[in-house]
Write a structure and sequence with these properties.
By secondary structure, the chain is mostly helical. Helix content is 68%, strand content 0%. The protein has a single domain, classed as Serine Threonine Protein Phosphatase 5, Tetratricopeptide repeat, CATH 1.25.40.
Length: 141
């Protein structure tokens, strides 16, 4: 029997592939799926955004940050891209960069202050006086 057609237990390769898909988490499926799309279309903004979020959810924060930086290169005025990068900095315990990038996101138009105050990604900077000052400065506008 050819190894390319059958597994050691006599299970056809296609069944093993389908079994892998069934056992794979939704997050892992999306990571694989979006990575394949980005191989063909590396500047697909919506896929980059989703892929970056998924990488971060998977605990691959530095990989997610690389996607955030790529999005900012492609769309420098995108307030959500800057917000997501600020979150990555906060998750990596880089408060100076997180606050600076968060300010840029707000200056570009990010205005969901209620979400910002509860976003778990910003937990490491929430007690920082600069965070509170930033919120006060722009929330009243």
């Amino acid at each position: 029997m050819s190894k390319s057609n059958t597994q050691p237990e006599g299970i056809p390769t296609t069944s093993v592939s389908l079994t892998h898909l069934v056992e794979q988490s939704q997050l892992d499926f999306e990571l694989d799926f979006f990575a394949k799309i980005l191989e063909r279309h590396p500047t697909y903004i919506e896929v980059l955004r989703a892929h970056g979020n998924n990488l971060t959810m998977k605990g691959r924060v530095e990989d997610g940050m690389a996607i955030d930086k790529r999005l900012i290169q492609l769309r420098p005025e995108d307030c959500l891209a800057h917000y997501n990068l600020a979150c990555s900095y906060a998750l990596l315990k880089q408060p100076d960069q997180a606050i600076k990038t968060l300010r840029k996101a707000i200056e570009l138009g990010y205005r969901d202050f209620r979400y910002m105050k509860q976003d778990r990604d910003l937990e490491s900077v929430r007690r920082d006086p600069r965070f509170r000052q930033l919120i006060r400065e722009f929330e009243s506008r």
